[in-house]
C-alpha cells in the first residue's frame, strides 16, 4: 500500500494525527530529503528512508510503486497538503499508467495558503484561488491566462512556487498584470517558512511589493478589492457590501454602479454618458451607448430647465407614465399628453392626422416653450421639427425616440438638422417610450450621477 502524506508547513504541531500514525507505521518513507528533519521523531528505527531532490517527483513515485509491489508499507511525504501541488497526483497517475493493483490513500495536511490565511487572520474570507508560477510542467501561456482570469475575477490569490533562481521573472509579470485590475493599495503578504522557527511574514501593498524578497520557501497572498489591513491582520469581508441592496433606490443605484463598471469605451460627455447609462439600465443592453446621440450639453441644459419647473409635452401616455413622478412633484413640472384631448381628436379628424401628431400640434400652440418628448410616433416628431424649421415653435428642446419601421429614420434625420436647440435621439429604428422617459429622468438626476 502507498500512503501519500502531507506534513503541513513544517512544525510538528501542524502534522495531523492520521499523518503521524501513517509515518510511524511505514516501513519505507520516500520524499524530498529536506523534509525528513521534520519527522525524525516519528520514524521506526528499521524503516528505510529514501531522500530525493526537488525535481525527482517521478522517480519518487516509481520507487514507491516498486516497494509497494514488494509488500512494504510505503509512505510518500510532502510539505503542506499531499493533494495540493504535491506528490498525490503523480503517484496516482503513475499507478494508473502502470495499471498496478496497489491501494493508494491520501492523508491530508495543512496547506501553506491555509496556514498563511490563519496567520494573517481572515484574508480567505471570500472566494480565493491558488496559482503555481512554476512552468516546469505547465506552459507559461497557460499560467498567464489563469493570472489574468484570477486578477479580473477579483479572487484573493495564493501564489505557490513564486520565485526561484532560474524562475526570477514570472512574479514581476504577475504583479504587472494584477496592477491592470487591482489598486496599487491592495494588501499583499509574503509568508516565508511558515510554521518553522525561521517563519517571517511581511505585509505590504501590490504597488510596493518587492519581488526580490520572495523565494521558494514563500507563499504569497494577494487580497481582493475589498481586503483591508487591521494592525497585523488582513481581512476580506464575507460580502462586497454590508448587505445586499433591498429598497428600489438601493437596487437602482447598485445597477448604475454595475453598468458604469462595465461600460464600453466611449467619448461621450459626462451628461450624455449619464443618459446612456439610464438607457442601458432600461434595456439591459450595453449597445445603447452607441445609439444615443445628443447635441452639446443637451442633458445639462434640460437639468436646469426641469429643476426650474419647466413643462414637458409627450406624444403618448406611456412616456408620461415613465417619467418619475417623484421628480415632477419635487420640481412642480407639468407633464402634458394631449393624445386623447378633445381638441386634438377634432384636429386629427379634420386634417387627416394621426392622434399623436394632432396632439403635438395642439400642444405646440399651448406650450411652445416646453420640452417635447417623443417616444412612439414618428409623425409627432416630424410635426415638431417642421414647426421649428418654419419658425413657429421654439421649445426648450426635443427628445426623439420613436420606434418602428415607417418614417422613423426620416423623422430622426430631420431632428439632427436642428442647430440652435438642444436635442437627443435614439438612432436607427430603435427607441420607444421607455427610452424617451429614461432620457428625461437622466436630465432630472444629473446632479446624482457619479461619473
Key features of this structure:
five-stranded parallel beta sheet, 19 strands, elongated, alpha/beta, six-stranded mixed beta sheet, 451 residues
Instruction: List segments where confidence is low: pLDDT < 50 over at least 5 consecutive residues.
Output: none
Average pLDDT confidence is 94
- Largest β sheet strand count, sense and barrel closure: 6 strands, mixed
Radius of gyration: 34 Å
Oligomer: single chain
- What structural category characterises the helix and strand content? alpha/beta
- Annotation field: number of helices: 16
Terminal Cα separation, in Å? 64 Å
Helix content: 25-40%
How is this structure best described in words?
With 451 residues, the protein is of the alpha/beta class. The protein is 39% helix and 18% strand. It is built from 16 helices and 19 strands. The strands form four sheets. It has a six-stranded mixed beta sheet with strand order 14-19-18-17-15-16, sandwiched between helices. Strand 18, helix 15 (408-415) and strand 19 form a beta-alpha-beta unit. The longest helix is centred in the middle third of the chain and has 15 residues, at 248-262. The radius of gyration is 34 Å and the shape is elongated. The two termini are 64 Å apart. The model has no long low-confidence stretch (mean pLDDT 94).
Amino acid at each position: 500500500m502507498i500512503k501519500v502524506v502531507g506534513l503541513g508547513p513544517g512544525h510538528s504541531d501542524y502534522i495531523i494525527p492520521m499523518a503521524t500514525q501513517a509515518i510511524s507505521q511505514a516501513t519505507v518513507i520516500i520524499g524530498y530529503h529536506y523534509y525528513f528533519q521534520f519527522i525524525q521523531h516519528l520514524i521506526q528505527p528499521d524503516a528505510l528512508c529514501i531522500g530525493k531532490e526537488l525535481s525527482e517527483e517521478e522517480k519518487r513515485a516509481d520507487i514507491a510503486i516498486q516497494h509497494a509491489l514488494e509488500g512494504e508499507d510505503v509512505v510518500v511525504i510532502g510539505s503542506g497538503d499531499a493533494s495540493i501541488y504535491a506528490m498525490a497526483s503523480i503517484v496516482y497517475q503513475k499507478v494508473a499508467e502502470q495499471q498496478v493493483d496497489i491501494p493508494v490513500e491520501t492523508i491530508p495536511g495543512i496547506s501553506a495558503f491555509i496556514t498563511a490565511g490563519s496567520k494573517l487572520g481572515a484574508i480567505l474570507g471570500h472566494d480565493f484561488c491558488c496559482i503555481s508560477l512554476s512552468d516546469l510542467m505547465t506552459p507559461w501561456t497557460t499560467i498567464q491566462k489563469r493570472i489574468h482570469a484570477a486578477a479580473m475575477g477579483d479572487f484573493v490569490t495564493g501564489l505557490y512556487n513564486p520565485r526561484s533562481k532560474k524562475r526570477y521573472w514570472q512574479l514581476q509579470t504577475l504583479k504587472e498584470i494584477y496592477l491592470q485590475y487591482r489598486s496599487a493599495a491592495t494588501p499583499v503578504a509574503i509568508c516565508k517558512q511558515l510554521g518553522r522557527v525561521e517563519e517571517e511574514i511581511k505585509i505590504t501593498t501590490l504597488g510596493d511589493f518587492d519581488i526580490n524578497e520572495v523565494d521558494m520557501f514563500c507563499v504569497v497572498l494577494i487580497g481582493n478589492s475589498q481586503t483591508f489591513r487591521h494592525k497585523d491582520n488582513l481581512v476580506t469581508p464575507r460580502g462586497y457590501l454590508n448587505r445586499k441592496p433591498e429598497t428600489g433606490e438601493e437596487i437602482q443605484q447598485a445597477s448604475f454602479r454595475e453598468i458604469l463598471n462595465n461600460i464600453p469605451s466611449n467619448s461621450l460627455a459626462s451628461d450624455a454618458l449619464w443618459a446612456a447609462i439610464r438607457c442601458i439600465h432600461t434595456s439591459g443592453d450595453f449597445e445603447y451607448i452607441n445609439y444615443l446621440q445628443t447635441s452639446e450639453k443637451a442633458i445639462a441644459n434640460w437639468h436646469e430647465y426641469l429643476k426650474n419647473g419647466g413643462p414637458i409635452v409627450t406624444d403618448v401616455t406611456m412616456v408620461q407614465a415613465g417619467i418619475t413622478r417623484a421628480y415632477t412633484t419635487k420640481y412642480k413640472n407639468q407633464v402634458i399628453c394631449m393624445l386623447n384631448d378633445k381638441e386634438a381628436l377634432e384636429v386629427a379628424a379634420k386634417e387627416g392626422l394621426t392622434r399623436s401628431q394632432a396632439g403635438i400640434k395642439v400642444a405646440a400652440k399651448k406650450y411652445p416653450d416646453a420640452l417635447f418628448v417623443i417616444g412612439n410616433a414618428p409623425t409627432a416628431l416630424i410635426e415638431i421639427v417642421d414647426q421649428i424649421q418654419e419658425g413657429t415653435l421654439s421649445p426648450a428642446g426635443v427628445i426623439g425616440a420613436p420606434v418602428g419601421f415607417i418614417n422613423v429614420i426620416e423623422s430622426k434625420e430631420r431632428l439632427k438638422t436642428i442647430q440652435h436647440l438642444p436635442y437627443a435621439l435614439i438612432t436607427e429604428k430603435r427607441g420607444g417610450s421607455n427610452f424617451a422617459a429614461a432620457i428625461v429622468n437622466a436630465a432630472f438626476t444629473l446632479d446624482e450621477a457619479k461619473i
